[in-house]
Amino acid sequence: MTADGLMTWHGVPVLLCGGDGRKLSGGDTALDLIGDAMGCHAEVVAVPVERVADEFFALRSGVAGDVVQKFVNYRIRLVIVGDIASRVAGSDALRDFVRESNRGTWTWFVADRAELEERLARG
């Protein structure tokens, strides 16, 4: 997986993935990212929305559940970074999933890196 590198914000090591590379499309690609994160001791993996497969956002496909479960199992937080407003507008289920995810600690959807840094500052 292509990564911009490791950043530390508010004491939390974050693996920032680049915009190009394999799309996050299921358990196998999730495990690749988890392996990268473990290799550099990251606690958070930040994936730009353009690196997330369309199937992830179609909740019926089960891709999102598979991906999120892998990250939770390995106790590494997943953050999707970018604008998903048009996707959320077209799906009540996705809107609810995003809202509930953002209330938790394991999976977040943020607009940009600044919002991610702000979330990490809150703990």
From TrEMBL:
Pfam families: DUF4180 (PF13788). It comes from the Bacteria. Residues 11-120 form the DUF4180 domain. This is DUF4180 domain-containing protein. It comes from Streptomyces heliomycini. The lineage of its organism: Bacteria, Bacillati, Actinomycetota, Actinomycetes, Kitasatosporales.
